[in-house]
Fold:
Amino acid sequence: MPRINLLPWREQQRTERKKSFLVGMFIALIGAALVTIAGYLFMGGLIDAQASRNQRLSAEIKVLDKKIEEINGLDQQKQQNIARMQIIEKLERSRSEIVHVFDTFVKTIPDGTYLTSIVQNGEKFKIQGVAQSAGRVSSFMRAIESSEWLKQPELGPVVGQVNNPLNMSFTLDAVQVTALSNDPAPAAAKRTGAKK
Structure:
């Protein structure tokens, strides 16, 4: 004969299911809380690590900026030194030129002509003198034009002297050919040609 269980087993089963559900929910909540805390700590660690990297990079950038400023200062100093050296080299090359210019004056002045004043302003000369005739002034201009140290003679006013009508006062402008001028090659070529 079959046995019939008249105990409230369904109630008991429902209660057990509720307990296991609540335990599962509690475990799930604890697991979710642990995962959230672990994720938060992990992200915090990543953020802290990145912040320390950023600080280190900022410090290195400041150091590099100082080095770049020093390098720029050295570059400026180098450019200034190069400019000074170039000026010194040009002055060194042009040091003996004034001697050649005055030697040119001596060689180019024709007979019957003498100079009363020579004024230099940069590469330009203003020459004043007295000549016995206009032909001697022209000869002086041609001699200047053919010299290697003076070029571009331009004649200013020529005036006859009242007390000596045979003599004429003249003013002449000329330009010096120097190593400092933009095109020193012709003068250098003539100099080397003259040395040969």
